[in-house]
């Protein structure tokens, strides 16, 4: 059979995946777009009507909306800084072989595999409870007054929990990336008298440039969607102190049944994500063409 | 002062620091497991009890009263189902992308990646309403489809990078022997890349097992997986710490072990092949 003719049907093998993803993306997104222009509350099903941009207006004048955007940015930003800086430090620390290195690495990446509801509840109760939590005991050990984490520092507490979940991811990626660092080059630099800091600055850091970018982008995708950790610990509160965009949309949609407003909020999240996505696509696209 | 011999004190310090950091990071998990073997009274005691008489009471209680097995079964079915469905969609797609690329293949791959960036809340309302209208709220089928689709881009990418590493000559040789597309795929490609396919499936399993946005929003009881069962322990203050720990330990243990076994391969999938 002619080779050219044979090639065509095989390309169709990608179609099921393509079509499913297209449906998953386009249909709901179009519906969200449509709903965002409607007055539509599930409690009053018969009453839907076109309201133009009113839902967006409602959101932009709603104080919690701006708080939630700010909270989202603070949460994503601080977790990124903590995990990237901490991840680089720890992966450099455990890079040279030593007895028990395998076990140390296993321990380090473990939190990544814990489901978010578990992480959040273990931290909130077993560790951060102001009366009987483990941290309260540590604080007392040093003669300090235990911190009432989730009541007094709610957003910080959420940041701690989420950072604990994502630090292992950064470590895992950086440790793997460091393994491909040229050992001979490292030895040569050492022979020439380069000290630790210089090696880090001129060899390690440039080598990690792409892994850092990848970690930032991949984490950003997931961090924009943090939901379960807030859902089981603070319910977005006290007040709206820990309400991020996903949580705000959830309250609008499933607690207040306001489909229109929730859709408008969802679109804001999509726009925010797209701003980040543009950078990621460029980054990954570059790595694809490099080979 | 160029030190030629390795400085033993510095090395020892480094090793100690590594262990200390690792133990601090692992501590919450260790503490959770320890608490799961305490009585509720011990779990809540201050100062914390490091030595205590271990009890299996919490596990017994969880299995008997909290209906743990029902939720565990839901987790197994939804995560397992999503993995199977995802692989069925991803393997043929990756095959087409790797061996029969068109000029648009690169764009399609990047587009797939971009769907991963669509935040769940952006489509929460329509998915909720569609599920409701199709009578699929609180249904395992809905979760299987959703989990498969949110992981599909990662799976296609991961398998694509594995396939790309396989020399085309092997496939060509099979072709010469008269094997068709399906035969080539099942007799040659899949056996040769089974390691990569296994780690892809594992990654999908882990991510689906731990997924909490859709499972919390689309289920109530009959299809609720373990993430939702754990979430139900969120309200009472300090009353059920030992039981919460027991449920959590049971829910996380299998995935933690799978994660340990496959850490190296997961990097490739989680970074879309950008870091190997």
Descriptive notes:
The complex is a heterodimer of chains A (291) and B (276). Chain A has 291 residues and is mainly α. Chain A has one domain (64-290): MetI-like fold. In chain A, 73% of the residues lie in helices and 1% in strands. Chain A is built from 14 helices and two strands, in the order ααββαααααααααααα. In chain A, strands 1-2 form a two-stranded antiparallel ribbon. The longest helix of chain A has 32 residues, at 259-290. Chain B has 276 residues and is mainly alpha-helical. Chain B has two domains: 12-57, no CATH class; 67-270, MetI-like (MetI-like fold, Orthogonal Bundle), CATH 1.10.3720. In chain B, α3 packs across α13 and α8 (168-176) packs across α9. The longest helix of chain B is centred in the N-terminal third of the chain and has 32 residues, at 68-99. The radius of gyration of chain B is 24 Å and the shape is globular. The model of chain B has no long low-confidence stretch (mean pLDDT 85). At the A-B interface, α1, α2, α5, α6 and α7 of A face α1, α4, α5, α6 and α7 of B. Chain B: Keywords: Cell membrane, Membrane, Transmembrane, Transmembrane helix, Transport. Chain B: The chain crosses the membrane at residues 12-34, 71-97, 109-130, 142-163, 184-209, 240-261. Chain B: This is Mannitol ABC transporter permease. Chain B: It is a multi-pass membrane protein.
